[in-house]
Amino acid sequence: MKTKYVYWQGDRMWLGYRAEYPDYWTQGETLEELQENLKDLYRDLSSGAIPHVRRIGELEVA
Q1: Residues near 1 by Cβ (< 8 Å), separated by ≥ 6?
Q2: Rg of the chain, C-alpha, whole Å
Q3: C-alpha–C-alpha distance, residues 55 and 59, integer Å
Q4: In this structure, are residues 33 and 23 in contact, taking their beta carbons and an 8 Å threshold?
Q5: What InterPro entries does this protein's entry cite (predicted)?
Q6: CB of 22 closer than 8 Å to CB of 56
Q7: Residue 38, Cβ neighbours under 10 Å: how many?
Q8: pLDDT digits (tens, 9 = 90+) for 24-62
């Protein structure tokens, strides 16, 4: 499975979040560590370990 994520390099850390969960950021000292942390965060978000998770959806209106 592949998903999109948004990331950038801060002063000392790489920061990012998964596109479908923009409220839940994580960080890593390297880009590879950030990617691993994003995977861990996804597991937590999708397992129900974090309550009241907000997501991005798509709605067709026309």
Answers
A1: none
A2: 13
A3: 13
A4: no
A5: TTHA1013/TTHA0281-like (IPR035069)
A6: yes
A7: 22
A8: 999 999 999 999 999 999 999 989 888 899 988 889 998
d(CA 2, CA 55) in angstroms, rounded, equals 17
Give the tens place of pLDDT for each residue, 16-28.
999 999 999 999 9
Of 15, 3, 27, 18, which is closest to residue 54 (Cα–Cα)? 18
- In angstroms, the CA 34 to CA 13 distance is 9
User: Hey, what amino acid is at 17?
Assistant: Y
Domains of the chain: 1-62 (3.30.160)
